[in-house]
Amino acid sequence: xxxxxxxxxxxxxxxxxxxxxxxxxxxxxxxxxxxxxxxxxxxxxxxxxxxxxxxxxxxxxxxxxxxxxxxxxxxxxxxxxxxxxxxxxxxxxxxxxxxxxxxxxxxxxxxxxxxxxxxxxxxxxxxxxxxxxxxxxxxxxxxxxxxxxxxxxxxxxxxxxxxxxxxxxxxxxxxxxxxxxxxxxxxxxxxxxxxxxxxxxxxxxxxxxxxxxxxxxxxxxxxxxxxxxxxxxxxxxxxxxxxxxxxxxxxxxxxxxxxxxxxxxxxxxxxxxxxxxxxxxxxxxxx
Length: 287
Description:
The chain is an alpha/beta fold and 287 residues long. The protein has helices at 20-25, 47-57, 71-76, 78-99, 131-143, 163-173, 190-202, 219-229, 262-266, 276-286, and strands at 11-15, 33-37, 61-64, 102-108, 148-152, 155-156, 177-180, 184-185, 188-189, 207-210, 217-218, 237-240, 256-257.
């Protein structure tokens, strides 16, 4: 990235490399020496396996893109959620300490309860309502104060399941669709998140950073924007409330998921584009 402090190439251990974010981040890590891993070759919940990998690889940087992100499943699979989202980060942090590496890990808007009337900044006090949010907040704390923690929200991209793909599929299957208008957030596109994540990791910037695209919308408004980008009639999308959903979702959703990218702004780092620009690019690739 222009303006990034690159320095000489370093060795990077990338976990969750075949996920939605890891897949798009990997090619951006050139010219560095990257060891890209995912299940089954590295189970980050296994301490012995993690520490053995650190001994073998000797990374300078670790970027953790692995997570259990099935929000509703986390409510019934509590141990698994905390193993993947919390204990695994403890293992990675221990591994980093053993070789002097810097850790960067991904977190979420779900660390907040959504009751604030204005956007959440990095210094607002977390108060998660769901198991997913609690496990991700625990992961933040396990990472430690020197780690880079990137909170993001409503992630969409070319690889893996996400709401853009879901909306496009549903538009092809139904005449009308209902989406909730009482949950608001910043849609975030991997194409814009990955370069910022790369820079924060390479520069070893400690602390919490909110990284989302700009433009706050409800899911109802976002679905309409997807329809417009796909050349479909946005009037086919109708609003509903969260309480109308059948079946009801297992995990509570924050009503306000809007993340202010204050730490980026105050650090003099560029923020990302309005979400409509990468949305149009993604829809063009998918269709």
